[in-house]
Design brief:
By secondary structure, the protein is mainly beta. It is built from no helices and eleven strands.
């Protein structure tokens, strides 16, 4: 059974940093894209960042570009999201997702990911 588990969320002040981790188990995703999405209350789940199978290609939402960094460690079947210079508008539940598609690409649509974690809350106070 495939399981995707996020950790590292919490409450921080504006300008501070957090590092989210996402560990996958049940199968290897070393040949698959992985991504991070977030969902604020009353809003749709939105793309944050994604990374190709070997980390050679990454993509970011405009709202986080230059502040967030996605990376992965395939030996640990884990993907990370380093979040710096956090803003109150970054407050949301953050979800990790893994794609079933093999290849060198990454994806920014929710429906392109088949495996999802339960989410971790990130709250940024002003």
């Amino acid at each position: 059974q495939v399981e995707v588990v996020e950790s590292g969320g919490g409450l921080v002040q504006a300008g501070e940093s957090l590092r989210l981790s996402c560990a996958a188990s049940g199968r290897s995703f070393s040949n698959n894209a992985m991504g991070w999405f977030r969902q604020a209350p009353g809003e749709e789940r939105k793309f944050v960042a994604a990374i190709s199978w070997n980390g050679g290609s990454t993509g970011y939402a405009d709202s986080v570009k230059g502040r967030f960094t996605i990376s992965r460690d395939n030996a640990k079947n884990t993907v990370y999201l380093q979040m710096d210079s956090l803003k109150p508008e970054d407050t949301a539940v953050y979800y990790c997702a893994a794609s079933d598609t093999y290849g060198r690409y990454w994806f920014r649509r929710v429906d392109e990911y088949q495996y999802w974690g339960q989410g971790t809350q990130v709250t940024v106070s002003s």
